[in-house]
Please model this.
Amino acid sequence: MARILIVEDEPDIALGLQQDLLLEGYEVEVVSDGERAVDRVEQGPIDLVLLDVMLPHKDGFAVCRELRRSGKRMPIILLTARTHEAEKVLGLELGADDYVTKPFSPMELRARIKAALRRSAATTPEVFRFGDFEVDFGRFELRRDGKAVDLTPIEFKLLAAFVHNRRHVLSRQQLLDHVWGREVFVTDRVVDTHVGNLRRKMEGDPDKPVFLVSVRGVGYRFEA
Model:
């Protein structure tokens, strides 16, 4: 039985979410501010976080950033009344897995929760090694010679997409779908920027990459 943490400061919304998810068979806990959310996740296992963006003391973006930086890997679904694309992209950049805009359909939210939990269950912790590097999916970490390399959540998701599709060419659109999702509009240039950042952190000579190879007119291929 999955344990879900609801982080919502509006009592009526929190109660409605709690009752709906209890009826679905989940274990459900509720906290009303960002600081308490971080403390609760640190105390013990949580399988998924429903995280409102507008929270007292510490907003949802800050909570998401803090959880990912501490290595927490459970799915995070943002609940937001904001509709600006830039804010949705920011949440995904910080490591959120999905977002739902208020007012939302309970049926849609339940479907998104089930999908996120399925993806999480299918991701078995493993370590993939190449060159001087190792990718630790359980710890959400890239290490070089045993020392952690500082990656953003988006950079790690991008690297994970490359590792799981190694030696196959991935178009920019495929990478956008893998990392940002189909419902968020960002340009191909964003992919190029993040690949460039990864190269600077991974390649001996970023201008002559060995691992993240460009395929002209198509996209990129990970050689390892």
Remarks:
- The domain at 3-122 is CATH 3.40.50.2300 (Rossmann fold).
- The chain is about 40% helix and 20% strand.
- The mean pLDDT is 87.
